[in-house]
């Protein structure tokens, strides 16, 4: 499948280097930062390197085709940073240090140009039009579906349903599959580790179907208590809902093993991959997940787009959870017939530009050597853990051995909100609050905490700036 060949569209708001017009680049030139392993990764000048010639500002040139990009021979954070315009702005007169990736990731120029290019020269509704632009937009949309299927290791694009994000995808499963398959006395196992979006939808459907939500406790290190999990599984268990990576503790549970154990009891397993997909490769067939969900905005893609994977034999049994256009074959007042899945579960006009941006984001991320990215993030996490240990009164929450680069912490004598406000004055963005994971924090006797979450474009120098600012806060009294 190829995307259509349209006239070029000149972008506005971006100059030729990818820096937003009128935005100030980070001041000064920094020395080459060292990775946690001690190797240099190249100089950072405060402005991105010139864009490769292949990154044109045309439609569909800004909406990559349905194909894999060749991988870079190596990875450094500078290779990623040069593509992300917003990382070169200032906040409160200081270069931005973005450590709030768990909430949302920033977008490379390839994504920005893809979305802008679509709206500037390719905008049309999909599936229902006979004209050229409708056909072109449909081809781009379905190329995005194919790219998501390949990215997740799904067997077919028909196993991918687009949604607004992880939350909507979970609600879709709860309302379509859950209402039809849950009943009185059934159990839904949900670890205490989970984000609210993987708790509340199950509480709602459990109330309606008279099933019950059964929490699975955590160990002191923030890992799921696997003995308790095994004890709670039974023939009453209809569903296990768990995250592949925690947004508040960074914990990466043994999802494949937990799924296999659940399947012994004929339970289905939904995996929340919102925090996982940006950090390491995912293979839903290897996991044997029945459902897998993620959000684009945590994957360097636009907000308002995400996806649900489901096994085809399960998708075929799922009834519409919303009605309207796009999901029908014919409508009359006597009888309405529906389109096949995945369109059956995509009522109305989807976020077409979001899919175009998601395709661009997937191609951008997979263009890097992903094992090298994962290794770098692991080293950066270890560096950050060691560096933060030097801050008086700072207590890191969770210590599971297998985790992504999420650092949630408290500081003696300082409210998390004050910590975030102080760091913001230095241009450092972290999150403070309950992180939509109140049961997980309650496990540690907390109601709120500060969180620094790292991504492939963060550097050891930024960690050093975080530590230095926190030390100044402690010294301020």
Task: Offer a concise description of the structure.
Helices cover 33% and strands 14% of the residues. It has 477 residues and is α/β, with parallel strands linked by helices. It folds into two domains: 17-50 and 66-95 and 370-477, Aspartate Aminotransferase, domain 1, CATH 3.90.1150.10; 132-364, Type I PLP-dependent aspartate aminotransferase-like (Major domain) (Aspartate Aminotransferase, domain 2, 3-Layer(aba) Sandwich).
CATH architecture of the largest domain: 3-Layer(aba) Sandwich
Biggest sheet strand line-up: 4-10-9-8-7-5-6
Name the CATH homologous superfamily of the largest domain: Type I PLP-dependent aspartate aminotransferase-like (Major domain)
- Measured by DSSP, the beta-strand proportion falls in 5-15%
Count of helical stretches: 14
pLDDT average, as an integer? 87
CATH fold-level topology of the largest domain: Aspartate Aminotransferase, domain 2
Helix proportion range:
25-40%
Compute the CA-based radius of gyration.
23 Å
Q: Structural class given helices, strands, pairing?
A: alpha/beta
CATH classification, class level of the largest domain = Alpha Beta
Beta strand count: 17
Number of domains: 2
EC number: 2.8.1.7
Catalytic activity: (sulfur carrier)-H + L-cysteine = (sulfur carrier)-SH + L-alanine
Protein name: cysteine desulfurase
Keywords: Pyridoxal phosphate, Transferase
């Amino acid at each position: 499948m190829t995307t259509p060949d349209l006239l070029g569209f000149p972008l506005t708001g971006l100059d030729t280097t990818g820096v937003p017009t009128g935005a100030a680049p980070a001041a000064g030139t920094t020395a080459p930062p060292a990775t946690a392993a001690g190797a240099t990764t190249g100089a950072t000048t405060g402005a991105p390197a010139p864009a490769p010639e292949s990154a044109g500002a045309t439609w569909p040139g800004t909406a990559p085709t349905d194909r894999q990009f060749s991988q870079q021979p190596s990875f450094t954070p500078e290779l990623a940073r040069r593509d992300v315009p917003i990382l070169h702005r200032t906040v409160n007169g200081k270069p931005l240090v973005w450590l709030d990736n768990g909430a949302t990731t920033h977008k490379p120029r390839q994504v920005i140009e893809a979305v802008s290019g679509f709206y500037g020269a390719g905008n049309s509704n999909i599936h229902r039009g006979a004209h050229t632009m409708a056909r072109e937009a449909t081809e781009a949309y379905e190329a995005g579906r194919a790219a998501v299927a390949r990215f997740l290791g799904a067997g077919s694009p028909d196993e991918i349903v687009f949604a607004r994000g992880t939350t909507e995808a979970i609600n879709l499963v709860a309302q379509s599959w859950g209402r039809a398959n849950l009943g009185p006395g059934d159990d839904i196992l949900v670890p205490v580790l989970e984000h609210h979006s993987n708790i509340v939808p199950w509480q709602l459907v459990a109330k309606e179907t008279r099933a019950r939500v059964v929490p699975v406790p955590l160990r002191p290190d923030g890992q799921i208590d696997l003995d308790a999990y095994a004890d709670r599984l039974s023939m009453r268990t209809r569903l296990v809902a768990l995250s592949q990576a925690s947004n508040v503790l960074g914990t990466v549970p043994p999802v494949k093993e937990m799924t296999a154990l659940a399947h012994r009891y004929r339970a289905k397993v939904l995996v929340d991959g919102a925090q996982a997909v940006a950090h390491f490769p995912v293979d839903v067939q290897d996991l044997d997940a029945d459902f897998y969900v993620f959000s684009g905005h945590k994957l360097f893609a636009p907000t308002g787009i995400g996806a649900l994977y489901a096994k085809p034999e399960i998708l075929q049994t799922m009834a519409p959870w919303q009605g309207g256009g796009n999901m029908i074959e014919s409508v009359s007042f006597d009888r309405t017939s529906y389109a096949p899945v995945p369109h059956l579960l995509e009522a109305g006009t989807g976020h077409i530009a979001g899919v175009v941006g998601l395709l661009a984001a997937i191609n951008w991320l997979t263009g890097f050597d992903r094992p090298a990215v994962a290794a770098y993030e692991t080293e950066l996490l270890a560096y950050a853990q060691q560096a933060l240990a030097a801050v008086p009164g700072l207590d890191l929450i969770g210590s599971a051995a297998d985790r992504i680069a999420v650092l949630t912490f408290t500081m003696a004598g300082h409210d998390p909100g004050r910590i975030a406000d102080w760091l913001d004055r230095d241009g450092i963005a972290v999150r403070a609050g309950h992180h939509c994971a109140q049961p997980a924090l309650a496990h540690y006797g907390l109601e709120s905490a500060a969180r620094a979450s790292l991504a492939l474009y963060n550097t050891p120098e930024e960690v050093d700036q975080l530590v230095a600012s926190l030390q100044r806060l402690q010294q301020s009294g």
